[in-house]
Design goal:
Helix content: 55-70%
Structural class: mainly alpha
Largest sheet: none
Number of strands: 0
Order of helices and strands: HHHHHHHHHHH
Length: about 325
């Protein structure tokens, strides 16, 4: 009896037809079991959504570059050069002295941020990478301002794992509260889905950073005389002062009046009276990120200003106000 092989031409063709029909049936059954939820009414991406989500790309760039450089010693220009769109490289950033455990966390965060930028670019269009100051000098100035005096030696986020995680305390939370603030303004169903996905991961990153620091809350940060918990409280207070819109940022410990249901002083997750995530406007975020307390005065993490229509309009608005004020002053003189 002759041996029949499926590799023989006629039998191979029959085998491939059967296999493809089987795969088609599997694909069809998956489509029925896991349909794509698409609303019958509305637009996938509303025109108004584009500016709002493009604004968030500034923060995603900041996180991506900081995390990539800390773990790899290089950033988006090597990992995903197509995303930078001609924007300048960050100032003063370099590889951090991280232990194995912390490096793994930050490396995962870094890759997540690259994915965020790619997703944003595909849905709402990319922005050129803004000029960013991620130097130890800038972080030292920020921490000096938080404590109200010059720390000696100057705070260096690249020194060790704990210092780096304390510096990270400022980053995902800014994106988190920004996304919560943007959420009610988003109209397109695809952009809503995108925002929810971004918010979920940014919230997770913030929770991991806070838990990392909470486990070390009582440790004194060498060579300073302040504990990790004190650092978080001072940084949160600074952000509240800069944003000028009440208490939307809290350290790892709070008075019981601010704790969950007024029954706890621990504050592993920062939230409002009903334990809901706080929210901020683009103006508030820029006041913090510029470290000037003004959405019109450049500086801080973005010495050349943030990119996108929202940030540019705010800058033009201030320029217009200054011009009007100068004209009014000149008229009074004459």
């Amino acid at each position: 009896m002759p041996i029949i092989s499926i590799t023989s031409p006629p039998y191979f063709l029959i085998f491939m037809i059967l296999l493809s029909s089987k795969l088609f049936c599997i694909s069809l059954s998956q489509d029925l079991l896991c349909p794509t939820v698409t609303p019958k009414l509305g637009l996938p991406v509303s025109k108004e959504d584009i500016d709002l989500l493009q604004f968030s790309e500034n923060l995603e760039f900041l996180e991506a570059e900081y995390f990539l450089w800390a773990t790899h010693g290089y950033g988006l220009d090597i990992i995903a050069p197509e995303l930078v769109m001609g924007g300048p490289p960050p100032i003063g950033v370099h590889k951090a002295n991280l232990d194995f455990f912390t490096r793994n966390i930050i490396n995962e965060f870094a890759m997540q941020e690259v994915g965020h930028l790619r997703a944003l670019k595909s849905k709402v269009g990319g922005l050129p990478r803004p000029l960013m100051d991620l130097s130890a000098r800038h972080f030292a100035h920020l921490f000096d301002e938080a404590f109200g005096y010059k720390l000696q030696p100057p705070f260096d986020p690249y020194r060790d794992s704990l210092n780096f995680m304390l510096s990270c305390y400022a980053l995902p939370y800014a994106a988190l509260v920004g996304y919560v603030g943007t959420n009610p303004l988003i109209q397109g169903y695809e952009t809503k889905r995108l925002l929810a996905g971004l918010l979920g991961v940014e919230s997770g990153q913030d929770a991991i950073i806070r838990m990392y620091l909470y486990e070390r809350a009582g440790r004194v940060v060498y060579p300073y005389r302040h504990t990790v918990a004190e650092f978080t409280i001072h940084i949160s207070n600074l952000r509240n002062r800069l944003a000028m819109c009440g208490t939307k940022d809290e350290g790892l410990f709070v008075p019981w009046q601010l704790g969950a249901e007024n029954r706890t002083i621990t504050n592993i997750l920062s939230a409002d009276f009903d334990s809901l995530s706080q929210w901020r406007t683009p103006e508030e975020i820029l006041r913090i990120m510029y470290n000037t307390g003004s959405e019109h005065a450049l500086g801080g993490f973005f010495p050349g200003g943030a990119n996108g229509n929202i940030a540019k309009k705010l800058l033009k608005l201030e320029c217009g106000n200054l011009k009007k004020a100068a004209t009014k002053k000149l008229k009074k003189k004459n």
